[in-house]
Amino acid sequence: MLTYLYNLSERQVELFVNDSLSAKYFLGLAADEPCPDSTTLTVFKGRLLERSGTARFEAVLGKVVAQAGAKGIVFGRIQVVDSVHTVADVDVAQDDRRSKGGGSRRDPDARWGTKGKRQRVTGDGKRERQVEHFYSYKAHVSLNAENGFITSVVVTSGEQYDGHYLRPLVERDLGQGLPAAVYAGDRGYDDGENHELLKAKGLKSALRLNAYRSEKKDGNKGPWLRLVRDPDYQAGLRERYKVEQKFGRLSAATGCGAAVTSACSGTGCRPCSPPRCSISRGW
Asked: Tell me: the pLDDT tens digits for 53-106?
């Protein structure tokens, strides 16, 4: 947890904990009890990922959500889904040269993905919108609109299509007993199978429809027009900004956006440096 929150290597964690009473209190160590050495921490983390992948971390998230409910935090009926990229901590050009020379890639699990378009100025001074490419991971999340809690997360490589991960997010939410009734998302989730999934589970869709749904020239647009007029659809879309707001706050507060891929990748990182979000090799 400390390596994740403060972007520390295992060696830096060992030094930090041995020098910090508050860190020892957080870990349940006595004031005169030393932190496990860095080699032990590295082996332990590797075993967690090799034996259970993200399952252990998902279990921790589930317990946090359960404890929040037990403490009286109210979970509402609208869940908002979206994804956020985490750029792999890799010099891609150098990594390519290493790979061509027979060496292993620094982060073999990351993949090239895209995320919308941004306006850029070309060499001749013209402005044009260009697709942004990232060598990255994706965190697919479900957020409760009532309290802003992220309730479920699925981590994938960066090229994965958002719409394919609605099902696991819904199933994880429902498995936790959340009172979910409406799922809101952007047009990336507007897939016939996703609408049918929600219907089959007795849930309402507030997945923003692509324009072609309601602009059809035939009589098949009736169900989509009724959906657009549904109060739950409209309410869900009004709440969708909250997941983007959450991503923005996390980025501002933690520097989320760059993954940590090695035991000591934090060049210039000190125990007192600001926290930084990391998603690496499945985490």
From this structure: 677 778 888 999 999 999 999 999 999 999 988 888 788 888 888 888 888 887
Q: Which helix (H) or strand (E) holds 139?
A: strand 127-144
* Cα gap 84→137, rounded to integer Å: 8
Q: What are the extents of the domains in the chain?
A: 1-52, 53-254
Tell me the per-residue pLDDT of 208-229, one tens digit each, with 9 for 90 and over.
999 988 887 777 888 899 999 9
pTM > 0.70: yes
Contact at 8 Å (CB) between 74 and 135?
Answer: no
Torsion of CA 255, 262, 59, 168, to 10 degrees: 80
- Cβ burial of 230 (10 Å; 0-12, 13-18, 19+) is middle
Instruction: Return the beta strands (E) in 122-267 as ranges.
Output: 127-144, 150-157, 182-185, 204-207
164, 170 Cβ separation under 8 angstroms: no
Q: Are 237 and 184 in contact (CB under 8 A)?
A: yes
